[in-house]
Design a protein that fits this description.
By secondary structure, the chain is an alpha/beta fold. It folds into two domains: about 260 residues, 3-Layer(aba) Sandwich (Rossmann fold), CATH 3.40.50.410; about 35 residues, no CATH class. Helix 6 runs parallel beside helix 7.
């Protein structure tokens, strides 16, 4: 399917949004989401990873922060020997670590060309920005560190997780500044793959990672990257779609992006095949998430962003 705007069915703003904010939310709008974000609660990390000594941590895959070096005593883990201090002093020393109890929240936002599409509601990219902003503000309330990744055909921007109000504002400003429809002709086939392959490198173990995307061009390499990510992080895959991508109305439809036009004559068989392809892709992402212990959330661009996230299950839930 080509990602053109439907000429015969203009965007209808919903949820009190202006036409401009349907296309590209302003920084002021994303900042204002801090209040409704109070209706979200991010769940605690899951207990899957075993620390050394067979201690089952409540903090899944949480990294260990260096605390101090002391003389080796029988029973210490030899993998933690401090060879530099041992060589310098002539006495065997071991490193001590303390468990890091904070959790980074990492938000990956898809700004590829396919996300700048709408027939009703808002652009998929605008929905992704609002969803990410709500999670960022919720993480701020929990005093978690906030970082992110914004990717398109032209490349990817990574923001290292940091504490505080300023970290949220930095992320929101990047969402607004980069919300520009990419020029046609980019390598959409590899953009998603490259972004997902970078995720395990930037999202440290123990992170709660959200991916907001339509997941078009998802290939085996992308799936492998998500599999690697799930081994050390909790993950939520948020699949965003426009109503037209799910159901094709009968009749003749004309679409355009200002340069190209596409005309579709939708008869009964075409409509059925169209719906089947969407359901197949939807089920593929859902099955992938379930297989790797990640949460799957389906989001239509006509829905209220807060209501979408409140369906997030074990990683996101309404605040009590």
């Amino acid at each position: 399917m080509m990602h053109f705007m439907k000429k015969t069915d203009p965007i209808r703003a919903t949820h009190g949004l202006t036409v401009e904010s349907v296309v590209r939310p302003s920084l002021e709008e994303l900042i204002a989401l801090s209040r409704p974000a109070g209706g979200l609660k991010l769940a605690k990390p899951t207990a899957r990873a075993l620390q050394s000594g067979q201690y089952l941590s409540r903090f899944k895959g949480r990294g260990m922060e260096f605390d101090e070096t002391r003389l080796y005593t029988p029973g210490d883990d030899v993998r933690n020997l401090d060879w530099r201090v041992t060589a310098r002093t002539g006495k065997v020393h071991t490193k001590l670590f303390r468990e890091e109890r904070e959790r980074p929240v990492f938000l990956s936002v898809d700004y590829r060309a396919s996300m700048f599409f709408a027939t009703r509601g808002m652009y998929k990219s605008a929905m992704a920005a609002r969803l990410a902003a709500l999670i960022a503000w919720s993480a701020r309330r929990h005093d978690d560190r906030i970082g992110g990744q914004i990717f398109a055909e032209s490349g990817s921007t990574e923001l290292r997780p940091e504490h505080g109000h300023a970290a949220v504002l930095r992320f929101l400003k990047s969402l607004v500044d980069q919300a520009q429809p990419p020029k046609l002709g980019g390598l959409a086939e590899s953009a998603l793959e490259e972004a997902l392959m970078h995720l395990p490198r930037h999202a440290r173990p123990g992170s709660l990672v959200f991916v907001f995307s339509d997941f078009r061009q998802l290939n085996p390499a992308s799936e492998s990257a998500l599999s690697r990510l799930s081994r050390h992080c909790d993950g939520v895959l948020v699949m965003i779609h426009d109503p037209l991508e799910q159901h094709l109305p009968p009749g003749r439809h004309r679409y355009g992006d200002g340069v190209h036009e596409l005309v579709i004559d939708a008869d009964r068989s075409t409509i059925a095949e169209y719906a089947r392809r969407f359901e197949s892709r939807h089920d593929q992402i859902q099955t992938l998430a379930r297989r790797h212990g990640m949460r799957f959330v389906s989001c239509c661009t006509t829905e209220a962003p807060l209501a979408v996230l409140q369906r997030g299950g074990r990683f996101i839930r309404p605040a009590t």
